Amino acid sequence: MEQVIKVEGMTCGHCKSAVEGALSKLDGVKSANVDLENKNVTVDFDDSKVSLVDMETAIEDQGYDVEK
């Protein structure tokens, strides 16, 4: 399953690495690709292993705001 999550506060390569890394550590996330220009992250994941709430929490734990 693929989900695009809007994220506020990402401005640089470090932000991109932090969000992609946090999501990639979650069991069930196959890939995470941040688009800094559009302020979002596209996540390919197995919804039987990880939920949208889990992914939003991982992003927020890195200090970024998820638009809901």
From TrEMBL:
It is found in: Cytoplasm. The lineage of its organism: Bacteria, Bacillati, Bacillota, Bacilli, Bacillales. PROSITE patterns: HMA_1, HMA_2. It comes from the Bacteria. InterPro entries: CopZ (IPR049740), Heavy-metal-associated_CS (IPR017969), HMA_Cu_ion-bd (IPR006122), HMA_dom (IPR006121), HMA_dom_sf (IPR036163), MerP/CopZ (IPR001802). GO terms for cellular component: cytoplasm. Keywords: Chaperone, Copper, Cytoplasm, Metal-binding. It comes from Phocicoccus pinnipedialis. This is Copper chaperone CopZ.
